[in-house]
Amino acid sequence: MSAFNVVKFRVKPAQETRFLDAHRDGKANWPGLLRGVIIGTGDRTYCLIGEWANTDAIVEARGKMIQTLDSFRETLEDLGGDLGVTDAVSGSVVLDLKHRP
User: Fold this and answer.
1) Is residue 2 within 8 Å of residue 95, measured between CB atoms?
2) Which structural domains are found in the chain, ordered by start?
3) Spatial separation of the C-alpha atoms in residues 51 and 33, rounded to whole Å
């Protein structure tokens, strides 16, 4: 069954274009990523959602994802609570609510 990762970010004022540009044009084309989207969740807050074949694919791509993060890290605000600049979770799908054909 597939797996997903979700990463929450809060972008510093006037840095949203730079944050989004860091992911455009294949810059976030990590090995094993089936689909990735960034959604706006509020004032300067975003979530990156990635779909992967399995959790092993996420683990294998982690180094490349960190390289991408390092390219725009200074655009992010600390989230507090000892999280740093990202709040990331990942895991295997346990229930598919609507299967794609």
Assistant:
1) no
2) 3-91 (3.30.70.100)
3) 6
C-alpha to C-alpha distance for 33 and 4, rounded to whole angstroms: 9
Q: What is the pLDDT along the chain (101 residues), one digit of tens a residue?
A: 799 999 999 999 999 999 999 999 989 889 999 999 999 999 999 999 999 999 999 999 999 999 999 999 999 999 999 999 999 999 999 999 987 77
From residue 43, alpha-carbon distances to 28, 62, 90 in Å are 23, 27, 24
Angstrom distance (rounded) from CA 29 to CA 43? 26
